[in-house]
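Quick log. Single chain, no ligands specified.
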Amino acid sequence: MERLDAREEIDTLVGTSFAAFDNRSGASPDLARLLLCFADKAVIAHGSDSNVQLFTAAEFALPRIELLTGGNLLDFHESETQSTTQIFGSIASRSSRYRKSGLLNGSPYAGAGSKFFQLVALESGWRISSLAWIDDEA
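-> predicted structure:
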């Protein structure tokens, strides 16, 4: 199978990472698909005004999957709304704006924020080596 060019492959990878937590129409979040988006030693950081939390890909994903499969957060969808990608050989950087929405405990839930991806080209294809995100203030 012919490989996509780097930008197309990165676009697909980032789209897959956003789509992994979609539970609309009864879909189940896909942990295996999400973990394949990340390099083995990837780091995920969630920033807020008061602190930063660091996670492995599994530590980041598991509580979110539990929330999405436990019935408290329904019809959830998160998508990229804007992005800028810079590619330098086998490394790349992408800044993204995103929005999310669903029903949390029966009430409308929505938000937006920024994500910053660092990506690397491995033998298996492009992977996320680090991801940092911050939600906009409500």
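The chain has one domain: 6-135.
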